[in-house]
Recover the amino acids of this structure.
């Protein structure tokens, strides 16, 4: 089987880079001084042992962050950062994650290292066994496990390009076995480049028991290793399975997961599943935490690992595999224990491998980051550029502990910097980011079915819910959203149910609307597009309008929709009631886009200044939107006698819009607790009349002190089937309402039952 | 109170023409020879006595068609025609409606006139009373009742423009009382113009008992009148109520509805409701069926009645109202009994009224049909232009019975001409027209909430359902339709559930898609926009594609959507499975737009010829769509070596599209009975996996004889949340499936329970 030829065949080429990835990343919780945390695992992270994203590893302080399996490195890192942010924002505010694989200074008494307080007795027993066998200190080492799977399309194409076997499962396992052997043989290169555990902190080793600094304590015999008697051959899948079983049988391993090789073959839950199903993917376990990366590993590292695995599949093996793997292992031990600032004794071999890797990129037309090889070669030439080298050099200025603490603090600050967003998903809407945050925190699996379209699949055990845009769910009927989408239909139905709605007419062409000027000219009225959202194309005339202004407003509105409504303008303040499942959960008052004069700056300058606020941005990616300076704003200013370069008096409030939507630059103020129950009930009943379960319904109320039952006390303007939720969570003023969490609880009521 | 001044005030002017209308139209069922039907009321018209649109009046053969209340005459006539069409298409195929108010020749024995077989004993008893009091023959006369209400805005504006009273209810009743009195005073003019019962048919009168011809038997003492002792004053609402009550008390009337005045005041169900609520609207009862109008009354007549009622409100009354009304009544008797071809003796008065009407139009800036006054004046000058005159003149050539039969036959043909549509609603989608037809037939109230948007409210007793586009309902969840709208998400979910879907990729920009050329170039594949419907922008390459064609297909697809899918092309025939509530109700095979060569015509000419078929049209208003000759069609022809002016050989089938959507000119063939249950179950299960209740799901099946469980037996292309239904009801070939009726039964399961 000529794998090199197969990899270059035209049928294989399109799929050569297809792969799936997953990362498990451990790390110790510490306080802001860098001391091991003494608190329990954060309560905010739900479903204890079973959260698929955030778990405890050996100790109560050792957080394990687990990404889902992804098809791209971009998505992998999106999830990795999101899970980090959820972890950070769920911990005590004075806690952070230790950025090194080697733990921070440990308690003097080993028993003061607290084994993870899991609910499953088996899980606790297993950890007790580890504590007895290896000692609690050793178990406090953290690392990255990098799960890797060649794309199915790639393996299928390879399979089809040969004729030696028609046993697909065996073929696939062979692919992984070869890859694994070559990886193990050259693992010392990974240790050289990315080893990052030069020194230990207090109370990890018996005093003076080891020489430090090295490249990687963790990847040396002083790290995380099995008893020397544990010998497992990778010569074939069958020998691997047989050896592991035999070790377990002999009592040298309690179960497969205790086998600490740099690579673990993965099939199903048990080793025996490997026998039935073959190798599905492999787990690289020899990656130290990269101290200089917020999430413990860089994109370039992951890219290199993928390339290195392709190389391992590509490269011919010598005759005696077991022998050369043993050489590989002892080379790794040598490299791991080298001084981090000294060149490695395998420099020449390393250069040769890099040459081969680079030529492989050319041969297979692979795409890699421009700087990848430059950086790798630099690390080879200058050991101080390796991770261990960098960490050790930095540490000499103060101490490794201080360096780690200061890095941890930077990561901590970063994770709290924009608490409303998930760094990896800022291309998605804020409400969706918030919902994803809540889901991860509550242990609900999040599968992004369509990132561009904000389409999520949420799953908790067997319970699946689909959500789009954060609040479009299975709970609303199709027709109720179509009713809300159609303002004329909404009003008709509300009117039939006895709610007050503004009178008005619908027009389907501008000429027809022009002819009806007399119907509205002398009254307060609003011109608005029938179906569009976010207040676009709306003009308000509080004291009637000239024919010219009427015509202009119609032109603007007809730009947004082929149907336009002209409606009676109701006096009062507009409130947005967020109703979910027959409850009013939040009420916002929204103030139209405005600036406050300082007597010096022009309106345009004031707007630009106000837009500098990092909370303001575009397209619902920030809690508030940038104020625009378009046609409508200019028209509105003109109505008040201003132009863009007018300089308003000090403290004068200048409005740039009539409509108060946050999406057109308005300010949001939470008033939920200020509004009486009778109005909340009006909102609930109106939403119910529309047959809806989730709706943002807009009421005009002239005087909050007047009971809702009074005639003309309120008027309902419209109901929104996709009400934004982030503006309630991050109002300009007032209390935050985490509505995404309400949505989650509505979709998964079992979350609340679990809490009882 | 100066009503003239009030009507001219600026505040009233905008509302001057606002009104609401309703029509009740009776008519006798006859066979195609014009003989009174001997059959029962059509079984297809459901809920017997309570259908709000189609009822029986006095006799079993006398159909009463009732429009809902409308805000415009246009909508009124839309409904009137729709209800007629439902009535016609529900009757025996050899029955039609008699177009005259005077019944066709009646049975010799009065008892052979069958009283309507209603289920309510009260209703039957009342008709027996009428039979005894007036005779069955008299009760066989039919007519139009025109219900009229001034717009609330108009009455409110009038109320606000005066200060004499602040009792709105009384004010409103006074408005109607004055209007009624003036109407009654001048009712003879209506009789002159629109009287249309010059002669009776056999067995209506005792032989030679009356002189014929006249203008209106129905509006004379020989028509439909109470005993002379029945005297009711219209001087005020109070006298009206008191007089009616007294007549009932004396036994002269059995109830109010037996009071046969030309105008009836309408409040609630009972006269006593008038006392509580005042007059809500008035019912004009003196309109003979217009024999020359398919629906018994012309738009111009209705327009005239509205104008005449405004005139009645406007015109000053003399001092003695009761007296002048008596004069009006006796004048009416005179006019009714005049010879239809002789001028009326009140010609001068009539001219004066027309002058006043015309000047009122000017004064109040009213809009009326251009020809209205020309026609009215012509009728006044030339009595043969009046309805009675025309009917009598026509009848002289043969007989009135023959004229009526021939007109009835024309109306009959017209109502069956395009059985798939409702003439009054051809601007709406065919599926919505079909659903409205079914609803009317089943006695479900149809309220068009938004005509432009195909938005209906359906109501049966207290049960309300909203429907958009014929199949968007409360039964589907919002998220399931969003899933179906997103082809990528649909495929992911179906794939996760184990259904076979074509492999493929999604691209969000054309450059990214171009770079992936290699992934598809050598395989059969399809390029399609992600979200659009109706097969727009789809290109199919059955044997791979050149880079140029690949690029062109991408350009076409990206024109339709910002995301484009490239998918494996599955071999086989595409079938559309229509699934409703876990049942496959219909399956269509669709053949792409095509023409058959005749050896003479060019492809363009053949297309134009095929498009002549009246079943083909645009925008889902006909069962089949017009074949287009756009960019895609030209590309498709080019692929086969043709151009638009190529002349195909005789009988050669030339395809103009790859995709087979009916909406792009394809032909539809019903194959429901040809496809085995296992495939139907696949469709049902797949729709269920998407959480949907109503869906049109497209399966590719290579060989119908291969069981569905066989590997790769089928592939699912997409699921549609708004599948067109008319193409199943009116396939190009095969059995019709009335899916709108299934939708109706799904929404209103009580319809089926009623049948049991």
């Amino acid at each position: 089987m000529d794998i090199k030829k197969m990899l270059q065949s035209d049928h294989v080429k399109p799929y050569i880079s297809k792969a799936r990835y997953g990362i498990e990343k451990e790390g110790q919780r510490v306080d802001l001084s860098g001391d091991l945390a003494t608190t329990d695992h954060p309560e905010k992270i739900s479903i204890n042992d079973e959260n698929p994203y955030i778990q405890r590893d050996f100790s109560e302080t050792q957080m394990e962050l687990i990404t889902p399996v992804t098809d791209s490195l971009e998505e992998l890192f999106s999830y990795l950062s999101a899970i980090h942010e959820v972890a950070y924002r769920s911990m005590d505010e004075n806690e952070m994650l230790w950025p090194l694989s080697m733990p921070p200074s440990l308690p003097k008494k080993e028993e003061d290292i607290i084994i993870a307080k899991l609910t499953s007795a088996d899980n606790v027993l297993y950890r007790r066994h580890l504590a007895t066998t290896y000692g609690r200190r050793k178990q406090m080492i953290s690392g990255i496990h990098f799960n890797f799977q060649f794309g199915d399309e790639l393996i299928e194409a390879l399979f089809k390009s040969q004729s030696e076997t028609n046993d697909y499962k065996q073929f696939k396992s062979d692919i992984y076995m070869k890859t694994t052997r070559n990886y193990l043989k050259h693992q010392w290169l990974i240790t050289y480049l990315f080893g990052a555990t030069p020194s230990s902190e207090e109370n990890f080793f018996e005093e003076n028991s080891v020489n430090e600094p090295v490249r990687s304590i963790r990847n040396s015999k002083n790290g995380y290793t099995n008893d020397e008697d544990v010998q497992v051959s990778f010569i074939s899948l069958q020998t691997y399975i047989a050896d592991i079983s035999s070790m377990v049988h002999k009592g040298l391993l309690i179960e497969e997961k205790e086998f600490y090789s740099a690579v673990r073959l993965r099939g199903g839950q048990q080793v025996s599943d490997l026998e039935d199903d073959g190798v599905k993917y492999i787990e690289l376990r020899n990656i130290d935490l990269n101290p200089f990366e917020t999430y413990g590993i860089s994109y370039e590292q992951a890219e290199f690992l993928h390339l290195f695995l392709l190389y391992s599949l590509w490269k011919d093996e010598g005759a005696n595999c077991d022998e050369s793997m043993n050489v590989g292992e002892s080379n790794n031990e040598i490299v791991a224990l080298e001084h981090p600032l000294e060149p490695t004794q395998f420099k020449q071999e390393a250069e040769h491998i890099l040459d081969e890797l680079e030529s492989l990129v050319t041969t297979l037309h692979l795409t890699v980051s421009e700087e990848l090889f430059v950086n790798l070669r630099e690390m080879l030439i200058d050991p101080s550029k390796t991770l261990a080298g960098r960490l050790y050099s930095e540490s000499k200025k103060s101490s490794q502990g201080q360096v780690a603490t200061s890095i941890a603090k930077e990561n901590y600050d970063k994770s709290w910097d924009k608490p409303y967003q998930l760094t990896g998903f800022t291309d998605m809407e804020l409400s969706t980011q918030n919902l994803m945050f809540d889901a991860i925190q509550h242990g609900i699996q999040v599968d992004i079915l369509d990132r561009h379209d904000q389409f999520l699949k949420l799953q908790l055990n067997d319970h699946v819910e689909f959500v789009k845009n954060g609040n479009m769910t299975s709970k609303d009927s199709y027709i109720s959203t179509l009713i809300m989408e159609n303002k004329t239909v909404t009003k008709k139905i509300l009117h039939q149910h006895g709610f007050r709605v503004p009178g008005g007419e619908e027009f389907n062409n501008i000429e027809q609307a022009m002819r009806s000027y007399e119907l509205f000219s002398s009254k307060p009225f609003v011109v608005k597009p029938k179906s569009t959202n976010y207040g676009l194309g709306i003009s308000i005339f509080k004291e009637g309008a000239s024919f010219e202004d009427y015509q202009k407003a119609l032109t603007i509105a007809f730009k947004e929709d082929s149907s336009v409504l002209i409606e009676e303008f109701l006096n009062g303040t507009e409130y947005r009631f967020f109703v979910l499942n027959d409850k009013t959960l939040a009420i916002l008052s929204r103030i139209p886009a405005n600036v406050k004069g300082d007597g010096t700056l022009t309106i345009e300058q004031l707007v630009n200044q106000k837009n500098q606020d990092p909370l303001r941005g575009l397209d619902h990616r920030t809690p508030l939107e940038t104020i625009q300076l378009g046609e409508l704003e200019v028209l509105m200013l003109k109505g008040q006698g201003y132009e863009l370069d007018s300089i308003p008096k000090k403290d004068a409030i200048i409005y740039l819009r009539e409509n108060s939507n946050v999406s057109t630059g308005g300010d949001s103020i939470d008033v939920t607790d200020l509004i009486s129950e009778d109005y909340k009930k009006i909102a609930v009943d109106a939403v119910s009349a529309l047959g809806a379960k989730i709706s943002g319904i807009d009421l005009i109320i002239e005087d909050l002190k007047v009971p809702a039952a009074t005639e003309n006390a309120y008027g309902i303007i419209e109901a929104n089937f996709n009400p934004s939720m982030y503006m309630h969570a991050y109002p300009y003023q007032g209390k935050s309402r985490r509505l995404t969490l309400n949505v989650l609880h509505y979709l998964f009521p079992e979350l609340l039952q679990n809490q009882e």
About this structure: The domain at 503-568 of chain B is CATH 3.30.1490.20 (Dna Ligase; domain 1). Chain B touches chain A at residues 13-15, 449-450, 452-453, 455, 457, 465-468, 472-483, 486, 488-489, 492-493, 506, 508, 516, 518-519, 563, 691, 721 (CB under 8 Å). Chain B is about 40% helix and 15% strand. The mean pLDDT of chain B is 92.
